[in-house]
Amino acid sequence: MAGMQYDIPVKGTHAHSWIMAFPDELTAFRAYADVFPDSSILLVDTYDTLKSGMVNAITVAGELRAKGHELVGVRLDSGDLAYLSRQARHMLDEAGFTEAKIVASNEVDEYVIESILSEGGKVDIYGVGTKLATGMGDGGGALGGVYKLVRIGAQPKLKVTSDIAKATLPDRKKLLRALSEDGSCIMDIIALADEKIEIGRKVYNPVNPLQFTHIPTGVRLTELRTVVMEEGKRTGSSSTLDQLADRCRRQLACLPQGCLRFINPHTYKVSISCGIHDLRLRLMEELQQA
Fold it and tell me: Where do the domains of the chain lie, and which CATH numbers do they carry?
């Protein structure tokens, strides 16, 4: 918007959703390079940084050079940034793209930068955003909320990464809460939108696919989300701030006591259903075979 209104030069890269909107990574890179032939910085960690992203970026760099353009660089947004930057630099240099820059992002701050430098990282540009703009540290902070593409039309989409906590959960979903007889919260369950969830079913840790538990017997499952807008119009009355605050207090009171303490609090369980677990594994296998 600043570029449009005030003619400020615009710099940056594309998002993971750009990659996932295309049939494959190479096609996405080529499309981006066609639009920005003289300012392309390609995000290489949507699927596999070294085996896929860097290989495809170098392919597109060669195609750009053949047309009289040069790839500006690549961006790393997850994993071991020091190691990956060293490997990326080696691959670029070996392919003859010694002037291509390496950009590092992903919650970068002065401590991450110092660590990368001390480990011999080959980063040229650091994308410092959240921790620069929000005053992180004591008394500050930010909620990490990031847009990720999970479906296009009827096709579920998945972003994979070496950091399983940053891997997405594919497709449309619903959110359920398991409540005890007295209304206390037991766990939340993320399931596919049309999936039938029953008491006793197996559910998985979203960041550790090998770790699972079962929905305990004697609980009541309730959907947490309600429709408040349809076709751009509100379907029900809105709540006042006092009503929202009261609801928040009541909901917090239902959490297990161990989750509410300041010192060493328990982690409230949020699990994924068999449907999401199986779909994610299937899509990961398809991407690996592509």
Answer: 2-133 (3.20.20.70), 169-289 (3.20.140.10)
